[in-house]
Amino acid sequence: MPLRILWSSNAPWVPSGYGQQTKLTVNRLRQAGHSVGLLAWCGLEGARINIDGIPVYPKGAHAYGVDVLGADSQDFKADIAITLIDAWVYDPKMFQGVRWVPYFPVDSEPMAPNVRDAVAQAYDRIVYSKFACAECDKAGLSYHYVPHMIDTNVFTISEQHRQAWRQSIGVGPTDFVAGMVAANNGYPSRKAFPQVLEAFARFLTHHPTAKLYLHTLPFAPGPGGSTDIPAHANHLSREYGVDVGKALVWSHPYQMRLGIPPDYLRDVYNGLDVLLSPSMGEGFGIPIMEAQSCGCPVIVGDWTSMSELFIDGVKIPKDQSERFWVSGYNTYYHLVHVDAVEEALESVASRTFDREQIRQGALPYDCDTVIRDYWLPVLSEIETRIHQGHGELRLVKF
After folding, report:
1. Which of 9, 103, 122, 247 has the fewest CB atoms within 10 Å, i.e. is most exposed?
2. To 5 degrees, how large is the angle CA 85–CA 112–CA 365?
3. What's the Cα-to-Cα distance from 204 to each of 163, 176, 209, 241, rounded to whole Å?
4. Which helix (H) or strand (E) holds 9?
């Protein structure tokens, strides 16, 4: 029997990783027979709307919809409420009576205590990395595994698009182009912008025609802070005697605000010689898999979810990073060494990659495959549990 699911996350039109996963997932679950409503705590205010038969509920006073999740679940008559966001933002006491099923990341080692304590009160749990599975095992938490997905019909290999994009940014066919596709928000930078920038500055002293494409904003105003990339580039230029700022290629900031279409990102990934993503921690890492679906090698760290997503390029060993204590989160990230990123860039620049073979490794993460092999079996298990009368919370005490 199909489920009635309230899906709470970014709206499908929001240009973010969560918005993308909502867009790829919700309609496919409906096509499989489930009824789905959306709580769009990012992307809609003021009134409920209906899009192609899907009711979309607006955000409430709480940034992540905690205050309205219970009421919207009741209005939709939801069997379960799936929340796609960090689980620590939720206080389950605020929506008693809801079968809460967090679909949540684990991006630290060990799992942060506030994540563990929140999801321990959930009806059921879904994680999207095998690293998260292992951390749930350590915490004594039951779970299901459903990886994030990409549309491999969009993210394809195209030599034509590779050459056209490279010409559009003014680089020749043999010039080396690295890139980052990551949000520049929060400080210290979870995406390791300062470490990547310094490593690239060093690389530039030996490869003067190299470029670094940055699919992000130069800095993000706000209380969370960000990396001031232009200021850091200016400092590195003085320190290393190269013009780092001139070697940076930026995505268009206004188009970033409106949402850059997937076709453009396909062209970027085809045009890059490597994607840099040695983050301090990743819950999944969608650009890593999108890039590899386009045959682009990657530079990642051998920690959190990045280990399992790696197909080809360079996977930086954990001993080439430092444990980084995150106050408030009360756990560790891993801060990559600048030397390790520089060495990885040199390694990639000296090699030739089989881009078609890289793409083959990404195909298991295709959206239709993930729906068929993961989402539908997991939802079937949850539906069986509900209809067998197992409505109690799965509580774990610490």
Report:
1. 247
2. 45
3. 22, 10, 8, 10
4. strand 4-10
Task: Encode 67-77: b = buried (16+ Cβ within 10 Å), e = exposed.
Answer: bbbbebbeebe
Indicate if 382 and 343 belong to the same structural domain: no
Q: How far apart are CA 358 and CA 12, in angstroms?
A: 28
Identify whether residues 199 and 119 lie together within a single domain: no
Residue 141 falls inside a structural domain: yes
**Residue 335 structure tokens:** 């801060």
Q: Which pLDDT does position 346 carry in this prediction?
A: 98
Q: Are residues 283 and 193 in the same domain?
A: yes
Total count of domains within the chain: 2
The whole-angstrom separation of Cα 37 and Cα 93 is 22
What CATH code is carried by the domain that includes residue 375? 3.40.50.11930
110-144 residue pLDDT tens: 999 999 999 999 999 999 999 999 999 999 999 99
- Is residue 154 domain-resident? no
CA distances from 206 to 13, 233, 242, 346 (A): 42, 17, 10, 9
In degrees and rounded to multiples of 5, residue 330 shows phi and psi of 55, 50
Q: Is residue 187 part of a domain?
A: yes
Residue 337: give the domain boundaries: 159-362
Strand (E) or helix (H) holding 54: strand 54-57
pLDDT digits (tens, 9 = 90+) for 250-290: 998 888 777 888 999 999 999 999 999 999 999 999 999 99
Q: Which amino acid is at 75?
A: D
Contact 278, 316 (CB under 8 A): yes
Residues 104 and 42: their CA atoms lie apart, in Å, by: 17
The residue behind tokens 């006491």 is 93
